[in-house]
Amino acid sequence: MRWCLTLFASLIVCSSVRAADWPQWRGPNLNGSSTETGLPDSLDPGSTLAWSTPLAGASAASPVIAGGKLFISTIDANKKLVALCLDENTGKILWQKPIANGFESNERNNLASPSPITDGRNVWYSFGTGDLAAFDAAGNPLWARNIQKDYGPFHVQWLYASTPLLSDGKLYVQVLHRSDDSYLLALDPMTGKELWKQPRPNDAVGESKESYATPILFKGGDKSEVLVVGGDTVTASDPETGKELWRCGGYNAKHADHWRTITSVVPIDGLVVTCAPKGGPITAIKDGGSGDVTETNVAWRTGQLTSDVCVPLAYNGSLYIMEGDRKKIHCMDPATGKEKWSGSLGGNSVFRASPTGADGKIYCMNEIGDVWVLAADKFQVLSTSSLGGGPSRASIAVADGKVFVRTSGNVYAFVKK
After folding, report:
1. Is residue 229 a contact partner of residue 274, using CB atoms and an 8 Å limit?
2. Distance, CA of 39 to CA of 30 (rounded, Å)
3. Which residue range forms the structural domain that includes residue 247?
4. Residue 121 region, left (φ>0) first, then alpha (ψ -120 to 50), else beta?
């Protein structure tokens, strides 16, 4: 009976997501890509804009879309952290809920940086204060709790910004910080109650213990793993129990004490790709094994090519790396790590938003709200335009034939015309 109830709850949590949705920060495939087609070649407010809606404040939180609704987090003029729901087709605000006070910010982010997560029926909001709040799609509250109050304060230099992962009836929350009690937490999405809490030790030093990445689900054959990166290592955990299955390090060989982790891992073709920070290498890890696989499961490592902030995109059998500070994008063969092509985007600002792939295109945005649409099969700029405003760090989302862009002051929807 207990097993049946657990399975039923899991089906409820996952049953409403469609292929056309963008339910989590890195999309339906957790790799920045979508199978959407019929998308615009230009994100020009003068030609392809469907609607735009002003937002009360800047945030790195990306929009998520399901069931005709767009969910987004923000911070208002009174420093309130706010959960928002918009009509996907018109941009009209359907409901908004103040969650907590978010007075703290810095030049890198603020406490509204984590993105929401939705399954179409319900939506979960996370904030850098440690507040988690769940609502149904109509805005009725389900539960709320604060991770810092329940498990101890966060010890991170640039404010907590990890987005949870929703999968198979569990909400996974990672806290990898400058403390000896880093952990991966699994919650019941419908109640917020703890299912398990798994310690996540590491031998990193100083700021290198800190991770702003998001847990990513890896599915291979009949098995699944929850992948976490930070503390100079990648780990894979059993989704049901949290037990660590394997770990791989070696990319911070000199044990630098300032290598905080921002980019989440990217699964592609049986590999787990991770970008070391601060100019460190990209490492491709063969999934599987047991225990420490640092010496056995590294498929390839790059030299100087890497990404410090932007999460790589896995799309149509290729791996796309955005070098945000150099304003350059690279297309790589994931099997070998060899470069297929690269190109400079230019512009007057760095890139912090991660690239998005769909409909044979790559969508990119820099920190001052300039947007690019690129061809995916070769370096070709299809269009550029400026939406203005900054800092703009949220990744672009696609769903239902629309491209959604969140800048510092607005959220936009673009369609092919």
Report:
1. yes
2. 20
3. 18-415
4. alpha
User: Which phi-psi region, left, alpha or beta, contains residue 290 (left: φ > 0; alpha: ψ -120 to 50)?
Assistant: beta
The SS3 call for residue 377 is: coil
């770990």: which residue's tokens?
247
Residue 5: inside a domain:
no
DSSP 284-343: EEES--SEE-TTT-EEEE-SS---SSSPPEEETTEEEEEETTTTEEEEE-TTT--EEEEE
Token digits for 336? 């070998």
How many domains is the chain partitioned into structurally?
1
CA dist 98 → 31, 34, 131 (Å): 30, 31, 11
What is the C-alpha to C-alpha distance for residues 160 and 101, in angstroms, rounded to an integer?
15
Given the DSSP bridges, would you call strands 397-399 and 361-365 parallel, antiparallel or unpaired?
A: unpaired
Question: What letter would DSSP give residue 8?
Answer: H
Q: Cα–Cα distance between 166 and 346 in angstroms, integer?
A: 36
What is the full DSSP assignment across 100-137? EE---B-SS-BTT-SPPEE-SSEEEEE-TTSEEEEEET
**380 domain residue, yes or no:** yes
Identify which of 367, 162, 393 has the alpha carbon closest to the alpha carbon of residue 261: 162
What is the C-alpha to C-alpha distance for residues 340 and 242, in angstroms, rounded to an integer? 37
Q: Does the residue 7 lie in any domain?
A: no
Q: Could you list the pLDDT tens digit for every one of the 417 residues in the chain? A: 344 444 444 444 444 666 689 999 999 999 999 999 999 999 999 999 999 999 998 899 999 999 999 999 999 988 999 999 999 999 999 999 999 998 777 777 899 999 999 999 999 999 999 999 999 999 999 999 999 999 999 999 999 999 999 999 999 999 999 988 999 999 999 999 999 999 999 999 999 999 999 999 998 777 899 999 999 999 999 999 999 999 999 999 899 999 999 999 999 999 999 999 999 999 999 998 899 999 999 999 987 788 999 999 999 999 999 999 999 999 999 999 999 999 999 999 999 999 999 999 999 999 999 999 999 999 999 999 999 988 999 999 999 999 999 999 999 999 999
DSSP letter assigned to residue 207: G
| Residue 2 in domain | no
- A 10 A CB-CB count for 78 gives 12
CATH of the domain at 308: 2.130.10.10
